[in-house]
Design goal:
Structural class: alpha/beta
CATH topology of the largest domain: Rossmann fold
Shape: elongated
Radius of gyration: 26 Å
Number of domains: 3
Distance between the termini: 60 Å
Largest sheet: 5 strands, parallel
CATH superfamily of the largest domain: P-loop containing nucleotide triphosphate hydrolases
Helix content: 40-55%
Bound molecules: adenosine-5'-triphosphate, magnesium ion, zinc ion
Strand order of the largest sheet: 2-3-4-1-5
Order of helices and strands: HHEHHHHEHEHEHEHHHHHHHHHH
Strand content: 5-15%
């Protein structure tokens, strides 16, 4: 049996399998029920959140024989049946009623002309031909213009779905002729749940919060999460726990900086302990962690403090319970203003580090400076996060 990557093996086959995009699937299902289907759609959103998947299911539903012939089924179920000839063709990838066109590599006017030519012919079987144009923002202006007329007077059988990760690059002349759907970043708990059900289906044992680490790394993209899971499964197969996925294993594989290290930083600030702070900096450098990555995580860590301080609740912190409790406890060590100052300063440092050479030295210095930022008396009412405290001569940026 050939191996299939998870992202393909678990590609949703019906609307209800698509996670976290109900605002899109519900509207499309309603339009199917009411028989009010448009000719142009724009699906926008981050990579790997279900745009192509939703477009394919939509195309399958439009041609499903059961949905066409059985009004009760259409009203009550509104999903492609998966059993009729058309649905089977779609699932086998042999349907002629769907064409996928990659605008990143076919973006000339000639390519669009060829597509327009193709659009004139109706489907042999079924009602609709669906054209999915991926990465549509890569089309040239001339190519967009060549397309306009087709979009204005499309043949009744043609439906265009434009998918893009960069909505703002699509000319208004095109987007105003389409129905627009914005796909959301997928929330961590939804990703985690999906990964868990994949592991269950694959009979893979997972330790407590290991999948949360995978999900966090994916930053809202389901495809990324599933690709990382592939990697994690391969990695875990080698250990001696029967292929079980452990938290430690995932942390190691992803070169993950754990929450404890972040708390080490805030502890050092609270205790005004530069020695401890230098230890953390050395730890990061020695273990080959990326400094930028570390700062990114540290900023998120501070954001979590602000959440607790402002909402007096840890509801919005996506962490295991023990870590949330620690946020609750430690939030009292700082004023919200102090936390904000640190965050502002780190954001600035992050930008500056990109252009610096003595990278590690500056990284250490920035961490040390956090202690100062929070504890030095404010110099005047105009003092901001990025102005140096009185005893420091220069901000990091002025060299
Ligand atoms: N909302 C979702 N629910 C369930 N699975 C999803 C979802 N989004 C993505 N996936 C999984 O990720 C894979 C890739 O998704 P898809 O091709 O639809 O992403 P996309 O939004 O078109 O991304 P890109 O912008 O990179 O083209 C799918 O095969 C599926 O396994
Ligand atoms: Mg896609
Ligand atoms: Zn069907």
């Amino acid at each position: 049996m050939s191996y299939q990557v998870i992202a393909r093996k678990y590609r949703p086959a019906k609307f209800s399998d698509i996670t976290a995009q109900e605002h899109v699937t519900r509207t499309i299902q309603n339009s199917l029920r009411m028989g009010r289907v448009g000719h142009g759609y724009i699906f926008s959103g981050l990579r790997g959140v279900g745009k192509t998947t939703a477009a394919r299911i939509f195309a399958k539903a439009l041609n499903c024989q059961r949905l066409t012939d059985d009004p009760d089924y259409l009203l009550q179920v509104t999903e492609p049946c998966g059993k009729c000839e058309s649905c089977r063709d779609f699932e086998a990838g042999t349907s002629l009623n769907i064409s996928e066109f990659d605008a990143a590599s076919n973006n000339s006017v000639d390519d669009i002309r060829a597509l327009r030519e193709n659009v004139r012919y109706g489907p042999q079987k079924g009602k609709y031909r669906v054209y999915i144009i991926d990465e549509v923002h890569m089309l040239s202006i001339a190519a967009f213009n060549a397309f306009l007329k087709t979009l204005e007077e499309p043949p009744p059988h043609a439906i265009f779905i434009f998918a893009t990760t960069e909505l703002h690059k699509i000319p208004a002349t095109i987007s105003s002729r389409c129905q627009r759907f914005n796909f959301k970043r997928i929330p961590l708990d939804a990703i985690q749940k999906q990964l868990q059900s994949i592991c269950d289906a694959e009979h893979i044992v997972v330790e407590g919060d290991a999948l949360q680490l995978v999900g966090r790394k994916a930053q809202g993209s389901m495809r990324d999460a599933q690709s990382i899971l592939d990697q994690v499964i391969a990695f875990s197969a080698e250990n001696d726990h029967d292929g079980a996925i452990s938290y430690q294993g995932v942390a190691e594989l992803l070169n993950y900086i754990d929450d404890d290290t972040m708390f080490d930083v805030t502890d050092a600030v609270a205790a005004q302990n530069p020695v401890k702070m230098l230890d953390v900096a050395q730890f990061v450098i020695k273990n080959g962690y990326d400094e930028q990555d570390f700062l990114e995580k540290l900023i998120e860590h501070l954001r979590n403090f602000l959440v607790v301080q402002n909402l007096s609740s840890t509801k919005l912190i996506e962490r295991p319970d023990a870590v949330r409790e620690r946020y609750q406890r430690d939030a009292g060590n700082f004023s919200p203003r102090g936390v904000m100052q640190m965050a502002d300063f780190l954001l600035l440092t992050q930008k500056e580090l990109k252009f610096q050479f003595e990278y590690q030295f500056r990284f250490e210095l920035a961490l040390l400076k956090l202690i100062d930022l929070v504890h030095a008396p404010l110099s005047s009412s105009t003092s901001t996060a990025t102005t140096p405290s009185p005893q420091k001569k220069k901000p990091l940026s002025s060299t």
